[in-house]
Amino acid sequence: MCPSLPQVPLAEWLCRVGEVFSQPQTWLYLGTGLLAGYALGRLTLVAVPPLALLYALAFLMGKADPATLVLLLEGVFRDAWTLLMGAPMGLSLGVVMGFLSGLSDR
Question: pTM of the entire structure?
Answer without folding.
Answer: 0.74
